[in-house]
């Protein structure tokens, strides 16, 4: 089972660093579907709690790689991170009190909407644009979703910074990775204090994520912006359909 968690972490780290996701979009559903195969059923709240540690690991490893490449908009990250941190604490509290079916449904709807926004802007020219006034509230919402769903917030942050903030997709992904690492610290503390965090599973996941994220930042530089958006969108849609199938069918 620990080896399976390590493999999940490797995949989440690679995809998280490439797409600015935090890996939670992979970790939460994977833990839900894979661990029962090893006789260990994990409640959704615990999967979200473990995912926060994975998000933190992606943030640390991914940020280091993107800093070396000069892709992170540090000033933007520092200005927007307070919104995501406050939202993350609120979302973590909600995650501890809402039923699993409600959390999974919100997760699926968010993933489908994020895929739609990215596909809608697939042919958008990658040039700087004036940021929209909707960016701060949208980033706060991404923080709420990161705390509630354990996804790192990248599913919202990347489209927000790219489509509303006027930031090129590569810089949006890199800056999202930086922001979500800061947000995950607060989220992980809330879940740990509630007793929902399984430290053995979290440690194995974090190790896999750290290894995977190092390779992910290198791969990201070799993939075109349009392919990044398309791959991101397909992954989001697939994960959303999996969750809806599990909790509604």
Total strands: the figure is: 0
Distance between the termini: 27 Å
* Helix coverage percent: over 70%
The low-confidence parts are none
Spatial shape: globular
Q: State the secondary-structure class.
A: mainly alpha
- Radius of gyration computed on alpha carbons: 16 Å
The fraction of residues in strands falls at under 5%
Q: What's the SSE pattern?
A: HHHHHHHHHH
* Average pLDDT number: 81
Per DSSP, the total helix count is: 10
Largest pleated sheet = none
Descriptors for this entry?
249 residues; mainly alpha; 0% strand; globular
What's the short version?
The protein is mainly α and 249 residues long. It has helices at residues 2-19, 24-34, 44-69, 74-97, 100-120, 135-149, 154-164, 169-193, 199-220, 225-248. The model has no long low-confidence stretch (mean pLDDT 81).
Plain-language structure description:
Helix 2 (24-34) runs antiparallel to helix 3 (44-69), helix 3 (44-69) packs parallel to helix 9 and helix 6 runs antiparallel to helix 7 (154-164). The longest helix is centred in the first third of the chain and has 26 residues, at 44-69. With 249 residues, this protein is mostly helical. 55% of the residues are buried. The chain has helices at residues 2-19, 24-34, 44-69, 74-97, 100-120, 135-149, 154-164, 169-193, 199-220, 225-248. It is built from 10 helices and no strands. The radius of gyration is 16 Å and the shape is globular.
């Amino acid at each position: 089972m620990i080896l399976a968690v390590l493999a999940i972490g490797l995949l989440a780290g690679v995809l998280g660093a490439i797409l600015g996701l935090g890996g939670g979009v992979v970790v939460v559903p994977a833990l839900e579907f894979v661990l029962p195969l090893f006789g260990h059923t994990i409640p959704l709240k615990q999967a979200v709690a473990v995912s926060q540690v994975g998000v933190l690991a992606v943030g640390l490893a991914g940020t280091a790689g993107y800093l070396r490449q000069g892709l992170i908009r540090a000033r933007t990250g520092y200005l927007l991170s307070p919104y995501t941190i406050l939202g993350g604490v609120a979302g973590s509290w909600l995650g501890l009190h809402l039923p699993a079916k409600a959390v999974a449904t919100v997760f699926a709807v968010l993933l489908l909407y994020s895929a739609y926004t990215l596909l809608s802007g697939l042919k958008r020219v990658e040039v700087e644009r004036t940021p929209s006034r909707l960016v701060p509230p949208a980033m706060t919402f991404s923080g709420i979703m990161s705390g509630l769903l354990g996804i790192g917030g990248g599913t919202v942050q990347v489209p927000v910074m790219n489509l509303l903030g006027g930031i090129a997709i590569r810089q949006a992904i890199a800056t999202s990775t930086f922001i979500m690492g800061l947000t995950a610290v607060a989220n992980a503390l809330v879940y740990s204090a509630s007793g929902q965090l399984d430290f053995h599973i979290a440690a194995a996941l974090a190790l896999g994520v750290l290894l995977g994220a190092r390779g992910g930042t290198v791969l990201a530089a070799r993939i075109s912006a349009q392919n990044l958006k398309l791959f991101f969108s397909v992954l989001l849609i697939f994960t959303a359909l999996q969750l809806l199938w599990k909790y509604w069918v």
